[in-house]
Amino acid sequence: MSEQFKNIVNIISVVAIPLMILVFVLFGIFKKVKVYEKFIEGSKEGFDVAIKIIPFLVGMLFAIGIFRASGAMDFLVLILKPITNLIGMPPEALPLAILRPLSGSGSLGLMTELMNTHGVDSFIGVLASTMYGSTETTFYILAVYFGSVNITKTRHALPAGLIADLFGMLGALFICKLILN
Predict the structure, then answer these.
(1) CB count, 10 Å around CB of 114?
(2) Whether the model pTM is above 0.85
């Protein structure tokens, strides 16, 4: 059962993104949309947005640097360690789980460090990469993208994003345990 499940997951992971792109392009053609021209137009708008978000990005990166340098990350890991032990998550992966909603580049650095330390094919290496791909940089998105369009009342965006991140982390742990154990 586990080998068959691995094969299905591998097939889905190989075809999912190319199939999505193909479906979008075919749907655009079906709707008589000039797909390439719209893509270029969106790219130009993306450049304008990138210029607007730079101040928010700098502020977010500064806050993350303070969070890590102050020792708050280590303290949070210490507090959450009993919970991670209960669900079978290696404590080495906890800093990644904490930092991922805050920073893509910071969590990428942690994931790379975990892979260099434990190996890319180890349980921790596979778990780290799966967690990285299963979650989003929620605080970054709220700070940068909402800030760039002057949205100040995020209402349910933060709780919904953090809940999605939590379930992404738990889902990654479940899938990795299912496939690798």
Answers:
(1) 24
(2) no
